[in-house]
UniProtKB/TrEMBL annotation:
Domain V(D)J recombination-activating protein 1 pre-RNase H: 24-96
Gene Ontology MF term list: double-stranded DNA endonuclease activity; histone binding; protein homodimerization activity; sequence-specific DNA binding; ubiquitin protein ligase activity; zinc ion binding
Ranges where the V(D)J recombination-activating protein 1 RNase H domain occurs: 100-232
Organism: Homaloptera parclitella
Taxonomic superkingdom: Eukaryota
GO cellular component, one term: endodeoxyribonuclease complex
V(D)J recombination-activating protein 1 DNA-binding domain: residues covered: 1-23
Ranges where the V(D)J recombination-activating protein 1 ZnC2 domain occurs: 234-296
Lineage: Eukaryota, Metazoa, Chordata, Craniata, Vertebrata
PANTHER family in the record: V(D)J RECOMBINATION-ACTIVATING PROTEIN 1 (PTHR11539:SF0), VDJ RECOMBINATION ACTIVATING PROTEIN 1 RAG1 (PTHR11539)
GO BP: any one term: chromatin organization
Protein known as: RAG-1
Amino acid sequence: QIFQPLHTLRSAEKELLPGFHQFEWQPALKNVSSSWNVGIIDGLSGWMSFVDDVPAETIARRFRYDVALVSALKDLEEDIMEGLRERGLDDSTCTSGFTVVVKESCDGMGDVSEKHGSGPAVPEKAVRFSFTIMSISVQADCEGDAVTIFQEPKPNSELSCRPLCLTFVDESDHETLTAILGPVVAERKAMLNSRLILSVGGLLRSFRFFFRGTGYDEKMVREMEGLEASGSTYVCTLCDSTRAEASENMVLHSITRSHGENLERYEIWRTNPFSESAEELRDRVKGVSAKPFIETQPTLD
């Protein structure tokens, strides 16, 4: 072991550092570097163009999304192996077919300004984007149903929630939030069409990821989907009800909104193709007044 070339020892040394986990994506992620030993990066890293051609003046730090997910899976390595044993599955044959469900959360952290002291002048509000690994399942053979081998026991606990991005910004600042979380969304989108190859329990295994945006409160959903704020006539984030309609009918609501539809409505709002008055236009787009940038899943957590 001792008499090995220096680069081999360096590699072995890196493997022992916390957070340095070698992994691969098949196929490779689009528009994401293949480098896997990535630490904390600038929050605007990966942003191709400025919002409204003005750089976002803010401080943001984040992990690259895939690196953070790998780290989270390696933290759960023992739980995964224990889950396979409990289910009577042979870990040497279970090398593919793993599915990971990730819950995303994002919220403002309120006023974080420094009351005393002489620190740098920063915006007074902060936002945190984080995720929780909710469950891991595996399809042992082609015919059988997927078997859950890990379920987060405290899915709403602070302890299971992993911060991905921290930034000084007001959660109502739609443009800056878009600039900071835009690259995160691009990475998430890239991961949906690829499989992660990662060593767990001494064997390379392949994982697919599904993302559920159920950790956003109403204010954040409105911000991310480009809807008017909570004082709007259009009261619901899932359908087109107005306050008057909702007060008359509390029962017959259906989920009618979709991210794609919100994008289409924003384009109508932006271009006003029918040359309508502001009021008519607002009624047509049902309260969509900014470009939506994160697809929020209309589900209950």
